[in-house]
Amino acid sequence: MNIDAATLAKLYPLDKLRPESLDQLVKECAIEEVGKGAVLFRAGDTDEHTLYVLSGVVRGDYPDGKTKTTDGNSLQGRYALGDLQPRRFTATVDSMTAHILKVDRRYTEKVITWDQLTRQTTFKHYDADPGANRWVFRLLHNRALHKLPTGAVERLFQRLEEIPVSRGQVIIREGDEADYFFVIKEGTASVSKLTEGGDAIVAYLVRGDTFGEDALLTRSVRNATVAMMSAGKLMRLSHRDFAEILTPPVVDWVSPGKASILARQGAQILDVRTIEEFEERAIKGAMNIPLLNLRDRIDELDRKREVLVYCGTGERSAAAAFILSKIGFTSYALQGGLSAMMKQLEKAPPGSKA
Ligand SMILES: Nc1ncnc2c1ncn2[C@@H]1O[C@@H]2COP(=O)(O)O[C@H]2[C@H]1O
Prior knowledge:
The protein is an alpha+beta fold. The chain has 3 domains: about 5-105, Jelly Rolls (Sandwich); about 120-250, Jelly Rolls (Sandwich), CATH 2.60.120.10; about 250-340, Rhodanese-like domain (Oxidized Rhodanese, domain 1), CATH 3.40.250.10. The protein has 11 helices and 20 strands. It has helices at about 5-10, 20-25, 105-115, 135-140, 150-160, 215-220, 240-250, 255-265, 275-280, 315-325, 335-345; strands at about 30-35, 40, 50-55, 55-60, 65-70, 90-95, 95-105, 160-165, 170, 180-185, 190-195, 200-205, 210, 225-230, 230-240, 255, 270, 285-290, 305-310, 330-335. Strands 16-20-19-17-18 form a 5-stranded parallel β-sheet. A hairpin with a 2-residue loop joins β11 and β12. α3 (about 105-115) packs across α5, α5 (about 150-160) packs antiparallel against α7 (about 240-250) and α8 crosses α11 (about 335-345). It is globular. The N and C termini lie far apart (about 55 Å). It binds adenosine-3',5'-cyclic-monophosphate.
């Protein structure tokens, strides 16, 4: 069974979306053909997907013994299957086969928010040309934004300010004070760092990519130079708006007490200070990836486990938690940094019941 925008347009609440939003969402959808007895989710599960029964029959068994049936060939198939989280019932395929459409719940929510926002006549960033809005859909893939409540996504788009940029223009210079966070609306940019051998390009950025968050979060100077490789447009967010809208929902702070519980439950402990600082004193069992190397060494972390990040005070760990969130890690930044954690460990060493 193929999925196209017309199929999505029959489903609630996707039927309200603009064609360009449906076209983007189609790319994120998967249809699975499953056989009788397959369990789609269990009561109590929490997961990232919204499911629709496109064909076949699915039985829902509630913990109290009640059951309900969803027939994909009837109107019921137009509504998401038991969309509350955690799941209220166990969903099992009851027909010989069923076709189940699966889509990332949080991405869908963000697309719906953007779509509704652009219908407001006061909204300044909507462009009737569908191609001109591609940066938005790419930006919405940024996993850090998935943590933003709907109101914050609206505020983010309202406060972004568009600026035209020319080829070769330096947007951020390594060592400068920080003022703005940027999203690329049109064009490409390079990120370079000063090395002993001169400037070295470390990354290329394209439409929908973001940059400039490190210095805002660490309250230090820019750690790289970002220059435009082509003319284009940037969207920028002031330091103040970044701190108000993006930092609180994206960076999850934990107290030393909660951090010890996370560590006991198997979270990876990541120290983002320099090698010298790490060698002098560190939390037992921690791995060291200095903040400046984190983007290049991300593969050393286990994506399936939570990451507890710490540094000296909390500022570098906030930036690290932001970088990790962007690519889908569940990460926490330790409030108060290493010394707060050391005090906690003296009170309750690992393995103790406290
Ligand atoms: N290796 C990298 N890959 C991608 N982006 C980077 C890399 N290093 C630095 N940056 C970005 O370049 C920006 C320079 O300014 P900031 O330090 O505020 O934030 C930095 C990051 O957003």
